[in-house]
Amino acid sequence: MWVKELRLTDFRSYPSALVGLSEGITTFVGRNGQGKTNLVEAVGYAATLSSHRVSSDAPLVRTGAERAIIGLDVVLPDRECGIEIEVNPGRANRARINRASVTKARDVLGIVQSVLFAPEDLALVKGDPAERRRFIDELLIQRSPRMAGVKADFERVLKQRNALLKSAGGARRAAPENLASTLDVWDEQAAATGSELVAARIALVGELSERVTHAYEDIAGAAAGASISYTSAIQENTDSTNREEWKGWLLEAFRQKRREELDRGITRVGPQRDDLSLCVNGHPAKGFASHGESWSFALSLRLASLDVLRQDGVEPILILDDVFAELDTQRRNHLIQQVLHSQQVLITAAVAEDIPPALGGARIPVSLGQVGHD
Question: Is residue 351 part of a domain?
């Protein structure tokens, strides 16, 4: 697949923008702050409904505007498709496919698939568990868009459960039986949706594991290499992908933690607290890996993601946001091989000299929010 045209209205620094693209390699070149990353961010947003730079939608809307619009014409293996996403901070986003409105914005998921590698990816190794959960969930949803609904359902139930726990002080004294009965209902729903999410995550980690190890060995030349596994606070056996087993384990964990959760007013166990364990040479990457090892691991995660998506018969769009300036020669050369085998690659760079000469392709200057102008 590849993006034929990108249209923006009130997105980031752009009152409007229209960018024609082609297969192969396209590099947006411009000094920092000129708007080049905004362009590839929009493409990545169309694939995941999230930004690789910020955790909320508000910064995506141009100052003074009420909403932003991202439009893409995408060439798929069997057809062309137009999608449009209306970003409405504080309200539900809306979307259209081939000019027809869809029920929910997440109905566009799965049309565009991309793998985006950026300096922010160091947080996958050095950052909090939320960064790694986001990584696995975004890849999971790209492969199986229905999981976006599963995750949304779990988050809705979790929010309701937490609200009940937070307000439970008086209820514990006035009507403890009613409180227990109500919590049982929310426990059942949280376990049902949470178990499906956890089982799907574990299955995906299983597919990534060997690919991450091989990618790291190729990049860093380290025989001991890297490993990735799923970690849960409630169960050591995190190889199981059986939803019913996980539902039972979650229900038992809720039962054991109920008093503590009532005291603290928050859900203490579940997929919202799980993590990915990243290890280098037998040690946790976070805290032990050097800067270069962390870069190698982050790149390995993205290349493994690329391979998993290709396994599904889809050639995802590869987006490289200002990364060549950060990589040494060995890591650059390995990344170049992936670039040369991709159908469409979108690259940003502060100066043209940051792009390896072997890549070639189209160069589009970006200056002061103007695309194609020096």
Answer: yes
Sheet strands side by side (includes 226-231): 226-231, 275-280, 283-284
Distances (CA, A) of 193 to 32, 98, 152, 202: 43, 32, 9, 15
Q: How many domains does the chain have?
A: 1
Q: What confidence score (pLDDT) does residue 171 get?
A: 52
Q: What is the pLDDT of residues 170-209, one digit of tens each?
A: 455 444 567 788 899 999 999 999 999 999 999 999 999 9
CA distance 178 to 158: 19
Q: Measured between alpha carbons, how far is 31 from 35 in angstroms, rounded to an integer? A: 9
Strand order of the β-sheet with 14-20 is: 14-20, 2-11, 68-75, 80-87, 94-97, 100-101
**97 is in which domain, residue-wise?**
1-113+314-374
7-22 burial by CB neighbour count: b if 16+ within 10 A, else e? bbbbbbbbeebebebe
Question: Which residue is listed with tokens 């940051």?
Answer: 354
Distance CA(208)–CA(225), nearest Å, equals: 14
Using the predicted structure, report yes or no on whether residue 227 has a pLDDT greater than 70: yes
Task: Report CA torsion sign: 39, 13, 33, 364.
Answer: positive
Question: Tell me: the pLDDT tens digits for 290-308?
Answer: 888 899 899 999 999 999 9
Least confident of 102-111, 223-232, 243-252, 324-333: 324-333
- SS3 (DSSP) at 358: coil
Burial class (CB in 10 A: 0-12, 13-18, 19+), 223: exposed
CATH of the domain at 336: 3.40.50.300
Percent of the chain predicted with pLDDT > 70: 96
Could you tell me if residue 77 is inside a domain? yes
Of the candidates 115, 17, 114, 116, the one whose C-alpha atom is nearest the C-alpha of residue 74 is: 114
Helix axes of 146-166 and 129-143: crossing angle, nearest 10 degrees: 140
> Could you tell me which of 70, 71, 74, 69 has the C-alpha nearest to residue 3?
74
Closest C-alpha among 113, 41, 131, 121 to residue 331 = 121
pLDDT > 90: percent of the chain: 73
Question: Is residue 73 one of the residues assigned to a domain?
Answer: yes
For residue 174, the model assigns a pLDDT of: 46
Residue 112, CB-side half-sphere exposure with 13 Å CA sphere: 35
Q: Is 176 inside a domain boundary?
A: no
